[in-house]
Design a protein that fits this description.
The chain is an alpha+beta fold and 206 residues long. It has 2 domains: 12-53 and 153-205, no CATH class; 55-150, 434 Repressor (Amino-terminal Domain), CATH 1.10.260.160. It is built from 10 helices and 6 strands; from the N terminus they run βαβαααααααααββββ. Strands 1, 2, 3, 4, 5 and 6 form a 6-stranded mixed beta sheet that branches. Helix 1 (21-33) links the parallel strand 1 (12-18) and strand 2 (42-49). The protein is elongated. Mean pLDDT is 76; it is low at 158-202.
Length: 206
């Protein structure tokens, strides 16, 4: 379509994503870095924002109620991953009996955060059974394997230099092997009225 309309697409692609889009940004960036992943497009820059990149640590923190609204976040994670990977056989295996019959129906894409918080507690301790929280803290079997795979997202990003622009001030910049340079930016407030922008990691491909 671009050629038919006399347009030429830039070969280098700038990729950005917020929250759960942060790890997705890393995946797309990695794919574009690999020879043969696409016949034309190559990675230009990455700007993943406020994503859970070290997922094992992040989920353990949610199980320990060390992040805001831990229970709601972990419920979203558990129900979504259960549909893909089978983390539990029945909601009764993961959630407190009082809430087990409601949780999966609330995370259907139609209920708003306000709808959900009217029904579910915001702490993991109140929402989940302790046995399930222990599995999140020290995962095994399927959860361990999947978390290990997700944890590789931010590793082995090669031949990158700092991306210009971005919100906030650069509070740390460092060099790495093979010309890697990355910048961590802090920004106050929230993004789109959802949760705080905690960090922006930005790279540009040489």
């Amino acid at each position: 379509m671009a050629h038919r309309n006399g347009r030429e697409l830039e070969r280098k692609v700038d990729v950005s994503g917020f929250s759960q889009g942060g790890p997705a940004t890393m995946l797309v960036g990695r794919a574009l870095q690999q020879e043969g992943a696409d016949r034309y497009f190559r990675l230009g820059a990455l700007a993943p924002v406020s994503g859970p990149y070290n997922l094992s640590v992040f989920e353990a923190a949610a199980a320990n109620d060390e992040i805001n609204n831990s229970g709601l976040y972990l419920a979203y994670f558990a129900t979504a991953w259960n549909r893909m990977y089978g983390l539990y056989a029945s909601p009764d295996d993961a959630f407190a009996s009082r809430y087990a019959g409601d949780v999966e129906g609330l995370f259907d894409g139609c209920h708003t955060p306000k709808d959900i918080t009217k029904v579910l507690p915001t702490t993991s301790k109140a929402l989940f059974k302790e046995d399930f929280l222990n599995k999140v803290r020290k995962p095994d079997s399927v959860l361990k394997d999947r978390l290990r795979g997700e944890g590789q997202l931010t590793r082995h990003q090669r031949r990158l230099v700092e991306l210009r622009g971005g919100r906030g001030r650069v509070v740390r910049a460092k060099g790495g092997g093979r010309g890697v340079r990355q910048a961590r930016c802090q920004s106050a407030g929230t993004f789109g009225g959802s949760h705080p922008v905690m960090a922006v990691w930005a790279w540009r491909q040489r």
